[in-house]
Every structure is written in C-alpha cells, then in structure tokens.
Amino acid sequence: MTNTLVVKKFEKLLGKDNVLSEKEDCYPYAFDVVEQGLDVKIPDIVVLPETKEQVQEIVKFASKEGIPIVARGAGTNQAGSCIPVKNGIVMHFSKMNKIISIDENNLNCTVQPGVIVGQIQSEVEKRGLFFPPDPSNLAVSTIGGAIAQSASGSRHFKYGGTRDYVIDLEVVTSDGEIIHTSSKTPKNVAGYNLTQLFVGSEGTLGIITEATLKLIPKPESRRVMLAFFDDLKDSAMAVESIIRHRLQPSVIDMMDDKTIYTIEEFSKSGIFKPAEACLIIEVDGTQASVDDQMTRISAVCQEHHVSEIKVAQNQSETDKIWFARRQAFSAVTRLNFDVVAEDLVVPTDRLVDMVHKIQELSLKYNIIIAIMGHSGDGNLHPHFSLDLRDQDQKQRFELAEREMLDYATSLGGTITGEHGVGTVKRAHMHLVNEEPNLRFMRMIKNIFDPKNIFNPDKIL
Ligand SMILES: Cc1cc2nc3c(=O)[nH]c(=O)nc-3n(C[C@H](O)[C@H](O)[C@H](O)COP(=O)(O)OP(=O)(O)OC[C@H]3O[C@@H](n4cnc5c(N)ncnc54)[C@H](O)[C@@H]3O)c2cc1C
C-alpha cells in the first residue's frame, strides 16, 4: 500500500512529522504487550493525527481503498488488540492528547482519546472531583485505549470501570462521518445505547475522537491496609466474608507469595513481607466511615487467620504500596523469558475454588503461576511465567490455560474481565458466547464496518 503517492498525500494532510513510512520507524507498531513470536505484520504507514478532521480524511481514504486501520493509544493492552494482522495503517493518538474541558457544574469532562488516564485523574482531583477507573498502568494508558478496551482496575469493586463513566463519544464511522453516541447529560434513553457498543469494541467499529466522562465528588478520606495470610485460601475466604458482611472497601486486591516476592524485589518498598498471600484493602469515604470500615474489615480478616495487618500510616506509605502493586506485571516479567497475564472472572463466592484450581494446575503442568487480581470482583490475573520458545512449555501452558478457562466458565465465570479479547481470547469466545450471540456480534460489526477496515480479525 505504501507507494510514494500515498505517503505524499498523508504528509500533505498531516505534516511530514506526523507520518512514518520507513520500515524501521513502523516496526515498533507491529507489537503490543502480547508475545507474538516472529510472525508480525509491520504496518505500511503510521499516522499521528492532530484533529478529528484529519481522522475523517484518513478513514475516508482507507474506506475507499479497503485498507485496514488499527487505532493505537499507548499500546499497552494485554490482548493483542492493537497489533496489525494485515499491515495497512496504524493511527497513533499521542498527538490528540488534550483535556478539552472540565465542567465542574455538570460533573463531567471532555477529552481527546490520547489523554493519559492518570492525567485526567490528577486534573479533576485538583478540583475536588474524582474519575475512579484505575487500570494498574494508568500512568501510561490512554483514555481512548481504556474506553476501547473497557478497562477497569482495582477500584472497580466499589466504583465500576471505564464503561460506567462514559457519557458520550464522538466517533468517526467507516464512511468518514462524525457521530455522537449520546448527549452530555447524565441521563439519556432516546434510542439504543450506542455509547456502550463502542465501549469495549477494541477499535473494531469506529475511531473515537472525543469522549465525555462522568465525574463524581472526590472522597474526603482514603486509607489502605495490607492483610497477610499464611494460606492463600484463607485470604480468598476473607474476601468472600468481607462481601458477605456488607462491607464496601473501594479495593480488595489479592497477591500470592510469588507476586509478593517479586514486587518487593522490584520495588524495594520494605512494606511487603514474605507470606503465602496478601490482600490490599483500601477504604474511602468520610473520615469516620473510613475508621469504622477499617476496624470491621480487620475483624473479618482475624476470623480467617490473618497473620499480620499493616495499615499505611501516611501518604508516603500509601504511595509505596500502590507503586509496588502497579508494578506487579513488570515485576513478574523478571522471573522468566515470557509472562502471560490471564484475566478470568468467577462469582466471588467461588473464589476459593478457583484459587485452589490454579494452584493444582501449576503443580500438574509444572509451570510457575503467580496469582494476583482484583479479588473483590472475582477477577484474577494468574500470571504464567515461562519460556514460550520452548515447545514443551508452550504446550503445557496451552493445556493449563484451557483447563483454567474451562473451570472458570464451569463456575459461572468468564474468560476476560477487563483485558479484552483481541487476538489472544478469540479462540475461547465460544466458551462464553452461544452461536446466536456471536452471530449478532458479527452483524453489528458488519453494520458499522461493512468493508472490515477497522482493526480486522480482532474479537470475532
Ligand atoms: C502493566 C499493565 C497493567 C494493566 N492493568 C490493567 C488493569 O488493572 N485493568 C485493566 O482493565 N487493564 C489493565 N491493563 C490493560 C489495559 O486494558 C490497557 O493497558 C489500557 O487500558 C489500554 O490503553 P492503551 O492506551 O495502551 O491502548 P492500546 O493498547 O493502544 O489500544 C487498546 C485498544 O484500543 C483501541 N483504540 C485505541 N485508541 C482508540 C481510539 N481512539 N478509537 C478507537 N479505538 C482505539 C486499539 O485499537 C486497541 O484495540 C494493564 C496493562 C499493563 C501493561
């Protein structure tokens, strides 16, 4: 596709600096976080639009010529969602990175897709407002990627995920038209919920050029504790029990001994001590309710044989805990050549069974599996630590993964809670979707993108 005329056309539209066409410049865009071996498709051209009108023009051209377009934020998704599978165009949003407005009266903000999630949080927090969705890599993840991936994170337990905070999207459709999926009002039921069709669509239905997000008041106070256990299953039982006691921390994250060891090695925080399991529990609200919840949650942990509870005494300790937790994926990558981060969900009252099964599979297939996750939501990220160049390990991993996902679905769970489908979970879609569901999904894709130019061969 990259002939000189096309490059010149895009350079005229976007400026020379916003078009990459040399193979070595385009090569990094053939990858995201997921290991793909050597069979990568290098995009023919990478474009960095600065305006929605430029996006429109590129889409119109691609649509006319039948050229695939893969939208890209920070490239940090864990599902192979933004790797090109057919060369074509990668549209990188690093230059559409402005917060357009923060409407303090109407509790919303409007942003371009390339704004970093953590930046939105810190800007609104300066005004006493709060944008809760917190993927662990919020320091780099773009909001466009988080919306397209329907990312969530630790605070989902109390606050929900990105999907719950998207009010309206501006989208460039496959024929280059600009649509708004809703209004900027907090409520709007005038028609089908187009907004939620685009949330989690992984760039397969259209290109998001602007998003209006819901904000809420920032909680007055916040406190985090670490609860250490000598038995992973006790920690899972404590999670179930906290929920049964109608307590509502903002976060209940779980880490096993391997995760604790690697993040302490990595972060040198001095806060995490060796234990078979640790729960990170954060509570927020008024000062009085925070104190009350902390006391009651500690009592529940005692019922489940907690070995030690450490409460962060100041902001610096809180920051150290969250820094370490957010480095968990990077820390585990140091254990072996590859790491595969799973993303299953089970009903929270089956968490103990799921944790037990993962431990069993680790022994059965002789693979290190570090367990971490947003346990309050039943969302576990077992991290397989292995060397995928070794065919025997690769085969054992595939068997263990399949057995793990089969078990999660047999408990009434699902194959992905927040990372998405992309290329890595496509083969498992039938485990949680019956044929009529898949048929409707294919029809939706076909209506929005009849020429299959938007991120082809993902999800379905
Ligand atoms: C260390 C680490 C920790 C993580 N922790 C969490 C976590 O706690 N919770 C969680 O949910 N996820 C987590 N993730 C994965 C998370 O989904 C992604 O990291 C992130 O939200 C995607 O943002 P991105 O900017 O990197 O998007 P990319 O990876 O660049 O793209 C993601 C998808 O969005 C599409 N896209 C991007 N921009 C647009 C646009 N403007 N219009 C249409 N489609 C677009 C892409 O085509 C792709 O399909 C983690 C990832 C890492 C590496």
> What ligand molecules are bound, each kind once?
flavin-adenine dinucleotide
Tally of helical runs: 15
Per CATH, the architecture of the largest domain is: 3-Layer(aba) Sandwich
Q: Determine the strand fraction and express it as a percent band.
A: 15-25%
Through-space gap between termini: 25 Å
**Total domain count:** 3
Per the CATH scheme, the topology name of the largest domain is Vanillyl-alcohol Oxidase, Chain A, domain 3
Mean pLDDT: 96
Assembly of the depicted chains: single chain
Could you say which overall geometry the principal axes of the C-alpha atoms support?
globular
What is the percent of helical residues? 25-40%
Question: What would you give as the CATH superfamily of the largest domain?
Answer: FAD-linked oxidases, C-terminal domain
Q: Please report the first level of CATH classification, the CATH class of the largest domain.
A: Alpha Beta
**By helix and strand content, what is the structural category?**
alpha+beta
Whole-number radius of gyration?
A: 22 Å
Brief synopsis:
With 460 residues, the chain is of the alpha+beta class. It has helices spanning 4-14, 23-26, 52-65, 117-125, 143-149, 156-159, 194-198, 232-244, 257-267, 287-303, 315-326, 328-333, 351-364, 391-410, 435-448, and strands spanning 19-20, 45-47, 69-72, 89-92, 99-103, 108-111, 129-130, 166-172, 178-180, 207-214, 216-217, 221-229, 251-256, 277-285, 306-311, 338-341, 344-345, 368-374, 379-386. Strands 12, 13, 14, 15, 16, 17, 18 and 19 form an eight-stranded antiparallel sheet that branches. A five-stranded antiparallel sheet has the order 5-6-10-8-9. Strands 1-2-4-3 form a four-stranded mixed sheet.
